Amino acid sequence: GYIQLTLRRSLATPEKQYVGFATLPNQVHRKSVKKGFDFTLMVAGESGMGKSTLVNSLFLTDLYKDRKLLNAEERINQTVEIIKHTVDIEEKGVKLKLTIVDTPGFGDAVNNNECWKPITDYIDQQFEQYFRDESGLNRKNIQDNRVHCCLYFIPPFGHGLRPVDVEFMKALHEKVNIIPLIAKADCLTPNEIKKLKDRIREEIDKFGIKVYQFPECDSDEDEEFKQLDRELKSYVTMVFATSK
Q1: Exposure of 185 by Cβ count < 10 A (0-12 exposed, 13-18 middle, 19+ buried)?
Q2: Between residues 166 and 108, which one has the greater pLDDT?
Q3: In the chain, what are the domains?
Q4: Which CDD domains match (predicted)?
């Protein structure tokens, strides 16, 4: 009778048999979803490249509704600034605190010598702040303001990378994931896009610039997932931003 009663109990509550590390992934997942995620995206490139339009389209929000448009003279005299826009997004119960770091003034001056310096200084400051917070006693409510990704907008009307493009990406590629984009690609023909894309790829390799690459997927993944992974890798090599 005792054996039958024990067997019935074990069959009735099989989910309670796992109370150790087997449930750890689920516990971590629940905790992460409840807390939410932080993502900081930097957008860089000269004015008029469609940066704000692309960001608003990506996240279906208007982050630049209070933006002041400068005239040509004001742009020339403007220095590089760092402006943060933060918005809370929730999708299917998952919360995301999105921070967009804009860099107005970059590449707009006549002399763009070291115009990327304020940007690299800002990225370094966020790393140092996060390290100090991690080294402190109270690590429960640490805010991660490190820049996770940088979208760099390349003008479509050149013949490849300009010196400022090369120097900017070389200054940042060891600090942040860089994704180069050809801005306003819809003003070019498909043949022109292909030529410009190939030229920029060659120059990125020539100057030893490290752009973001998707990590390799596990060998035991199914073929459909591997094909999706290959397609994403081909897209991320050079993304096209259109002006709509």
Answers
A1: buried
A2: 166
A3: 29-62+78-214+221-237 (3.40.50.300)
A4: CDC_Septin
